[in-house]
């Protein structure tokens, strides 16, 4: 799990560093951090009751995300409507990151 956590942290730092470095050229850098989504890759995990229960228990929405729920944020983030958003990490995780 430490490799996964380290890579997620790296994406966050890279997002802010690139936003700072590339901003003067008008290039924005933002990222979307997701939690568990019911995808083809996660099919094996969705069949493990203990893991499904763990995810649901740590997510305030008490469920996995669905692939079609990602469309809105993926279309929104690179749109002109967000031209002043730069260096932002959007947590798209059903509230999982709110855990204390």
Would you mind describing this structure in some detail?
This is SDR family oxidoreductase. With about 100 residues, the protein is an alpha/beta fold. The chain has a single domain, classed as 3-Layer(aba) Sandwich (Rossmann fold). It is about 40% helix and about 10% strand. The chain has helices at about 1-20, 45, 50-60, 70-75, and strands at about 30-35, 35-40, 65, 90. The chain has a two-stranded parallel sheet. It starts with a helix and ends in an 8-residue tail after the last strand.
Strand and helix layout:
Layout: H1 2-22, E1 31-34, E2 37-38, H2 43-46, H3 49-58, E3 65-66, H4 71-76, E4 89-92
Biggest beta-sheet profile: 2 strands, parallel
What are the segments in which pLDDT stays under 50 over at least 5 consecutive residues? Answer: none
Question: Which shape, going by the Cα principal axes?
Answer: elongated
End-to-end Cα distance:
19 Å
Q: Would you tell me which CATH topology applies? A: Rossmann fold
InterPro entries: NAD(P)-bd_dom_sf (IPR036291), SDR_fam (IPR002347), Sec_Metab_Biosynth_SDR (IPR052178)
Pfam families: adh_short_C2 (PF13561)
GO molecular function, one term: oxidoreductase activity
Protein name: SDR family oxidoreductase
């Amino acid at each position: 799990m430490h490799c996964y956590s380290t890579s997620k942290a790296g994406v966050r730092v890279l997002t802010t560093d690139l936003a700072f470095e590339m901003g003067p050229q008008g290039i924005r850098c933002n990222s979307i951090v997701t939690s568990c989504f019911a995808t083809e890759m996660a099919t094996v995990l969705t069949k493990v009751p203990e893991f499904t229960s763990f995810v649901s228990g740590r997510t305030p929405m008490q469920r996995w995300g669905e692939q079609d729920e990602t469309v809105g944020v993926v279309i929104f983030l690179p749109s002109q409507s967000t031209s002043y958003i730069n260096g932002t990490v959007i947590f798209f995780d059903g509230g999982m990151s709110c855990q204390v």
